[in-house]
Amino acid sequence: MFSTSKALKATALSCALVMPLSACGGGSNTTADGKPVLTVQVVKDARAIKMSEMGWTKDLEQACGCSIQWQDVAASSWDQQRQASLAAGEVADVTISGFGSGDMGEYGSLFMDLKPEMDKLPNMSKLFEAEPYARAISTTTDGRILGGPSVARGAARTSNHMFINKQWLDKLGLEVPTTWDELADVLKAFKDGDPNGNGKADEIPMDFNAPGTGGFGLFQPNVLLASTGITVPNGPLGMYVKDGKVHNYLTDTRYRDLIVYLHELWEAGVISSDAFTHDWSKYTGTAKGEGKTAIVGFTWMWTPSDIFGPELGDQYITIPSLKQHADQKEPPVWAYNGDDLAYQADRIVVSAKVANKDAALKFVDAFYSPDISVQARFGTFGTAVRHNGENDYTILDPPEGHDNAADWQFYQSLADGAPGWLSDDIKLGLPSIHTEVVPVDAVYDEDYSHVDFDNDILYSNMPMTPEQTSAMNANNTGITQGAMSKFAQWVTKGGVEQEWDAYVENLKKNKLDENIEIEQQVYDAFKKNMGMIKVNLNNRAEESEQSE
Ligand code: MG
What we know:
Blueprint: H1 10-17, H2 22-25, E1 37-44, H3 57-64, E2 67-74, H4 75-88, E3 94-96, H5 101-107, H6 122-130, H7 132-138, E4 148-151, E5 161-165, H8 166-171, H9 180-192, E6 204-206, E7 239-242, E8 245-248, H10 253-267, H11 280-287, E9 296-301, H12 304-312, E10 316-318, H13 338-342, E11 343-350, H14 357-366, H15 370-378, E12 385-389, E13 392-395, H16 405-412, E14 420-421, E15 427-429, H17 432-435, H18 437-442, H19 445-448, H20 466-493, H21 496-509, H22 512-530, E16 533-535, E17 541-543
Parallel strand pairs: 1-2, 1-3, 4-14, 6-9, 13-15
Antiparallel strand pairs: 3-11, 4-11, 5-9, 5-10, 7-8, 12-13, 16-17
Helix pairs in contact: 1-4, 3-14, 5-20, 6-7, 10-20, 20-21, 20-22
The structure holds magnesium ion.
């Protein structure tokens, strides 16, 4: 597909970069036998087979009465393509999991407004009626609906859960740590005490997912800020909400205290020397130890079996938020990214220039039928899902050769990236892999009792205006680079106390305060738009009974 001809014009080149889209590749919009053709770009997990090979996509083809030209993109290479695609103003007829609410401000004109088409989207209309929160996150600041959401059942309130090797604690006669100091003592004992019993000092007391230069993500030590009362969200760098007010912890002395603490741990040699450099597969691979020998003592992730593997998972327990100091007055809370575990906006978008509009709308709406919602998320009927009857399904265990149930799910479905709606009417029998997180997440009940879920949550799907998006993006370049490089430097080499004031000054110069103001406006507008809709602890939206 990629031409090497040097004679290519810039426009042709950009088309080649953004894949053979209808607007670029020419070609017919109908098949020889007159069926409408749709180009559908899907950004998916590296473990997934081709879309055309996933059995359930035949049901989609039938539902739209069209011929689908799938364009599969691995998530790892999407970001570059995404930017080229937006800059060129060329998107596929339909894109799945490729664009987010952040793109809808600046590039919204590339996508079809689905709101006037609701009579052609009966399943989506039903969803928006039953789930007003899904409608709120799908509606732009000027009232358009540019994408279809994913609405699932949130089994957890956060992706971040904290684990420690209980077998090691028992072996060394240690208690489960409840404060930062106790954790430091335990980690030092892990380092020196050969708790895995192999006669080698090969233990990695603490490990984490490497914080990149683009900001904090999941499974990183910034979650320890929850010890100080910050409900750490999975959102724009440093932003959090307390009592309805947006703050940023990057210039908060509690963040400085955390860095001082982490540097002490680094100096004591209890943090993996690879913690800032290893990639995802090295991080999760190391945690799985060597055979039956555990290597990592403490880290964060989704569930113990997910990060440590089924062989070692049982050695670990989930622990609640630590106190920073034994005598602190502020109760610890915990990280929260819950609304994006159950709700994601703009999972599926349609090009404003789509030639076969009716086919595209049928295609989109099919994702919100119960049968496709379940298959797109878990896999094809027969091999991955047993269809017991109307709205009644059982997710099957992985077959021979696919031992890991999570890998199996990603192999032949879009998993949690799928557009769709697992409504309360759907009866779903789930194997343990999908429910293991429930008791893990319940460990944080006490911490969450100190969170006001109406006023301490930074939501993940808040629509922004084009002006807000571009102002924030412009400021973020300097803020992010400055903050993330300093974080790594201070943890590994120290110096945060001496350099703190200059660093704070620098972030202010890079307009951190303006970004906090914008985030506050976005938050206030979203809360207003939500109106009577309330998100409860279990991530499900409910309409509050009455009044405002
Ligand atoms: Mg050892």
